[in-house]
Structure formats: structure tokens, C-alpha cells
Amino acid sequence: MARIASLQVFALRGPKIARPHWTAFFPVPPGNEILVRLRTTEGLEGFGLASSYTAIEPLVKPWQNGFAELILGEDALAPERIYQKIFKHTANKLASERGWSREAMIRLSAAVDLACWDIVGKAANLPLYKLFGGFKDEVACYATCGYYREGKDEQELRDDLQMMVEQGHKGFKVKIGGLSLSEDMERLRVIREVIGDAADLMVDVNRAWDFRTACEGVKLLEAFRPRWLEEPVAWEEPVMGKKHRDDRRLLKLLAQRTSIPLSGGESEFTSYGCRALLEVVGQPVYGSGQPVYGNPDMIGSSLYGGNYGWGDSRPPTADERGAGTGWMLYALGCFLCLCFGPVGPLFWFVVAGMHYCKPQSVRDTLPQEAAVARVSLMTAVASTCAMVALFMLLIFVVAPNAQFQGPFTCEEPCRDWSRASSPQDLYVCLDMYTKRCAAPSRNRCYNGEVHCRQKGASSDCPQSCSSFAGFASKWDQYVCFNNATAVCTEATNTGCMSAELRCRPMP
């Protein structure tokens, strides 16, 4: 066991620069580094460091009031155990009492972890890449350049890049996002002209673009053939008037709109944050010290999203809430369509309208809600067309070919039927299947029934109706004899009136 016997800590502060280099919105620090050197009881030494883009004092303070006690005496060959011990102090009482910030604990845990792994490699007398299972002894590299600077003109930009080309660099990662899209594209034109078409060009926005600008920017970037686009969207994006920590989801949405691989993860502080990023965006295509993501359609990411997995406890976005409400209304439309027919499509049109009535700039950030709207609109149109087709079928095909009652001679059981009690019961219907007689409803019998003669009437109509030849259509298949006027007429809607006798049709 190689226990940590002693340690040394160095704080490095670079001098201030008169003309500092800038990314899109913050200056590059001249150098704030914490260097940690660990020595074991066997005399092995390990070296680690932690960088800070902010003041270095929060990283120095823990070493002055007891942080070293967490490390001394620990087994340097068990770096994971030491890391977990330090990481617990990102949220506990001792760290709060002593003023150890969460960011300081995370950064210092990295420095100590690097020093421990340095000792592991020396104890095994092997480089770490072989201990980790690697087999390559060379790694491709690139130069980060193209920074902004106060008063920096095109010639200074050309000179900086030409110097790096002459040094033999083949890959260049440049900074954009600090100017308008048109100005940044002009800078990229100059950069590509200097480094040539054969060199690798990477573009780093440092989270300076909002989502709308990013959607426009990826289209303009295609002309420069970047190998990847790094951290293109802002870490905080306004959604429906509020702000959410939503860059992971926006990175996925942007990947759906471009073929340029997107890089991210540099601003994640922990492995848990990187895991959540992978769960939202998808699996990395290839790496450069941080994950690089392609179009989710090519790497199997979900279309509707919403599965954020472990470690991501953020509330649902406006898009996810809108999609959830949309699916509930869609289900209600399905229920109403089954129960009340035409009411269902109206609900589906409402669901689609809730989305398409929003401004285009808002709809561009709501892909899940758009999917619900598309399904609702297609279902509403399809169901409406189906209902219209069914109605037309009934009107023009079924009704003209419907078969009406007949034959019109009643069976013997109905001749003595005598339950008529009102003018509406002057006719008798015989059910051809049950052979039972009953009063008709509203003076007419239905399909499957025979309309019998009026109660108390003779079995035959007068002779004057025998030669009646006024049938004109299927609706005129009956002849009625009026008792009062002794006149024969065609029946109305296949039914005779209460004061009329129903006669047989013409042979």
C-alpha cells in the first residue's frame, strides 16, 4: 500500500495582459492554476493540477484550513476512493463550516485524482494509456486560435494564423460568437483562406448563440466544412418568458437541423453531468477530449425525447408540457369520436390550432408539440373525410336501393286485431318473423313488417282503386282509398292517412 505521506500545493497566477484574448463573451485568463504534488511512503511522486477561469482564492482557502487532512494517509493506489471522499464535501456540514465552495471541491478533487493516477502509472512502471487499455502512442492535436482582441483587425488575424501554419499545425479550432453572424462568417472566410482547404477546421461558439441564431448559423457554417461545432447554444435559454438550464436539450434539437457534428461537455463539472448529457443528446460519434455528437436520426436518438434518465432533475420544459397537454386532448378527441362522431375531429383541429397559431420563432423550439399537432391534424382530416364518404354512401347508394315493405296482403291473425284506441292506431302491422300484430308507429310499418288494412274495413278496396295506374316511383307503391270522398290516391311516403284505407299495389 502506497500511503500519501506528504503533499505540496502551488498557486500560479499569471500577470495581467494589456490586450487580453477574448472568447465570445469572456477574457481568457492569463493563468490561474493549482498544482498538487503528492509523495508516498515509498518515495513515489505524483503531479496534478486544476485550472480556474475565475479568482484562484477559493481554490487556495481549503488547503489553509484542513483540506489536506482528507488526503494524508490515504492509499494513493486507490484514486477512486479518494475522489469519492473529496466529492462528498461538495454538500456537507464540514465544507459549509469551513467555507469550501462546491466548485473548489470539484476542481481540487480533479487535481488530487490526476496526482494519484500519476503515482499508479509510476508504481506499475507503465504509461497510463496502456493501463487504461489503449494501444496508440500518438494522439492528433489541434491549435486553438482565432481569439477576439481589442483592436484586432484582419491583418493581425492573418498573421496569427500564418504563424501557426508555419509551426506545422494541421488542425485549428477558432472562436466565433462575439460578433454578428455576417462578421463572424467573414472572419471564417479569412481563416479558411489562410489555413487552406486540407487543414481541419473546428469552430467554438462558447455557448454564445441563442437557439434561433444557432439554427441560422449552422446553415452558414456548412460552406466552411467544419469538422465539428463546439458548444453552439447558450447554457440558459428563455422558454415562454422564463429561463431554464436547457442547453442539453437544445443541443439535441440543433443536431436534428444540421449535418455538422456538434461538440459539448466542456462546461460539465462532473461525470454525472456528462452522463446526463449523453442520455439527452445521444451517443458520441467520436471524441476530442469531449463528446462530439452527430444528427440523432443517424445515431438512434428518440424523436419525442423526454427521457432524461438519472441525474437530471430539471422540471419539464414548455415544449414537454405542451406536448403532454396535446396528447391528453388528442385522447379526449378519440373518445368523443367514438361516442359522438363529428365532435372528435373538432377537438383534433383545436389541438393542431393551439400549435400552429403560435409565432414561427416559438414553433421552431417545440418539436414535440409539433409532432402532436401533425398527428392531430392528419387524424382530424382523415376522420372528417371518412365521415363525409360514409354520409355520401348512405345518401346516394344505400337509400335509393333500399327495399321497402311487401307483400301487402296481411296474414289472418291481424284481421281480428282490435286494440286500436286512437286515430294513430287505425293501422295494424304484422311482423313477418314473429307473426305478431301491433299498432304501427306514426301510421307506418317498418322493414320486416307488413302494413295491414284499416281496422273494421272490408278485406278488399273498392273497385275504383283496382284500375288505379298512377304509380310513378318506388315511393308510390301504395294506393289509398278515402272513405269520405271515395277517391283513390297514391300514398304519401308509403303511408295512408288516418281516414284512408290502404289498398294493394297494382299488379
TrEMBL record:
The keyword Metal-binding applies. PROSITE patterns: MR_MLE_2. Residues 154-261 form the Mandelate racemase/muconate lactonizing enzyme C-terminal domain. Its cofactor is Mg(2+). The chain crosses the membrane at residues 327-351, 372-399. It comes from the Eukaryota. Keywords: Magnesium, Membrane, Metal-binding, Transmembrane, Transmembrane helix. The keyword Transmembrane applies. PANTHER family: ENOLASE SUPERFAMILY, MANDELATE RACEMASE (PTHR13794), MITOCHONDRIAL ENOLASE SUPERFAMILY MEMBER 1 (PTHR13794:SF58). This is Arabinonate dehydratase. It comes from Durusdinium trenchii.
